Automatic annotation (TrEMBL):
Organism: Xenopus tropicalis (Western clawed frog)
UniProt keyword list: Acyltransferase, Lipid biosynthesis, Lipid metabolism, Membrane, Phospholipid biosynthesis, Phospholipid metabolism, Transferase, Transmembrane, Transmembrane helix
Gene designation: agpat1
Name of the protein: 1-acyl-sn-glycerol-3-phosphate acyltransferase
The UniProt record lists the keyword Iron: no
Transmembrane segments annotated in the record for this chain: 12-40, 52-72, 143-161
Swiss-Prot/TrEMBL domain comment: The HXXXXD motif is essential for acyltransferase activity and may constitute the binding site for the phosphate moiety of the glycerol-3-phosphate.
Family named by the database record: Belongs to the 1-acyl-sn-glycerol-3-phosphate acyltransferase family.
Length: 292
């Protein structure tokens, strides 16, 4: 009888003994493996932080793969295709559906300047969905130091500007106007100059429009609909959702001079704001007039 009890208790006893033999690191691992999925499901903020951390971490990892491929060509705008190809699947990982309207407005052979609204680093998804060939973004200089992502951007010809030194930024953009024409390159600018998730558009910086006027090329506005239904940094919300990207008709700059830049910038901003408001009022369950 007593030997039976010992036998019956032995699996439990060995489990307890085994558990006691776990090192602190192993215990931590077990706790994390149990706590992580629970927290992920229960806490909206935790989910938000995980998703954002994975987003950045995944891009840094993909860049490790992209760097040697891009390095074969050296610094070259064609490398932007490599980055685009590598980033296109991310929308599926996050369950973000992207609908594109106005493709025909990109049917221009000559170089042009794309200007688009800038809500978050998630804009990268919409940008990669429609990025025209030989098109490079203008980015803040700090991005060049974002580890592997910075190096990948540099290899793909991303134009870096120092926003704190207007004169330097202007001279980089003046050089870009020459490069656009000489090397048949398109440039993508976020004219708000910073991320803006206010549900409207910030006043526009003038650089993109000076660039287009200097090169005498069209400006093509692109508007990404509000992410509010699925993403909000303030509320730490990040769910699945849908985004519409609208490519608007190009605005010509032939014959314009730098004196016309303020009016051009205002006109383009007006077009974008109208499209943004329209798209916001189309959001399911939302009435018109959601944008101020
Ligand atoms: C697989 C692995 C993947 C790895 C990963 C891949 C990622 C691959 C995608 C990356 C994607 C990145 C995306 C980043 C996104 C951002 O980094 S957004 C931040 C950077 N972008 C910008 O700042 C937008 C461009 N900025 C501008 O255009 C600004 O005008 C400037 C040039 C910086 C100057 O800024 P400012 O002094 O604050 O503003 P502003 O009032 O516009 O200008 C001052 C005066 O200069 C004049 N001016 C401005 N520009 C010019 C000019 N070009 N010529 C003559 N006069 C000018 C203005 O007219 C104004 O004069 P007034 O009209 O007052 O007389
Ligand atoms: C060893 C160094 C490690 C650095 C780690 C950096 C982490 C960054 C990781 C991945 C980079 C993802 C690239 C996404 C590009 C999105 C560009 C973007 O959204 O930039 C913000 C800029 O438009 C405006 O900046 P502010 O709103 O003025 O601020």
């Amino acid at each position: 009888m007593s030997s039976n009890v010992v036998k019956a208790a032995s699996p439990l006893a060995s489990a307890v003994t085994g558990a006691m033999e776990l090192s602190v690191a192993q215990w931590l691992l077990v706790v994390c493996l149990v706590a992580f999925p629970l927290l992920y499901e229960w806490s909206v903020s935790f989910k938000y932080f995980c998703k954002m951390a994975f987003y950045n971490g995944w891009i840094l990892t993909l860049a490790i793969l992209a760097i040697p491929i891009c390095a074969v060509r050296g610094r070259n705008v064609e490398n932007m295709k490599v980055l685009q190809f590598m980033l296109l699947h991310i929308k599926y990982l996050y369950g973000i559906k992207i609908e594109v309207r106005g493709w025909e407005n990109f049917n221009i052979k000559e170089p042009y300047v794309v200007v688009s609204n800038h809500q978050s680093s998630l804009d990268l998804l919409g940008m990669m969905e429609i990025l025209p060939s030989r098109c490079v973004p203008i980015a803040k200089r700090e991005l060049m130091y974002a580890g592997t992502a910075g190096l990948a951007c540099w290899l793909a010809g991303v134009i870096f500007i120092n926003r704190k030194k207007t004169d330097d930024a202007i001279s980089v953009m003046t050089e870009a106007a020459e490069t656009m024409l000489k090397e048949d390159v398109r440039v993508w600018v976020f004219p708000e100059g910073t991320r803006n998730h206010s549900g409207s558009l910030l006043p526009f910086k003038r650089g993109a429009f000076h660039l287009a006027v200097k090169a005498q090329v069209p400006v093509i506005p692109v508007v990404m609909s509000s992410y509010k239904d699925f993403y909000c940094k303030k509320e730490r919300k990040f769910t699945t959702g849908k985004c519409t990207v609208r490519i608007l008709p190009g605005v010509h700059t032939k014959g314009l001079s730098s004196d016309d830049v303020p009016e051009l910038a205002d006109r383009v901003r007006g077009m974008m704001l109208e499209a943004f408001s329209q798209m916001s009022s189309e959001r399911p369950g939302k009435g018109p007039g959601g944008v101020h």
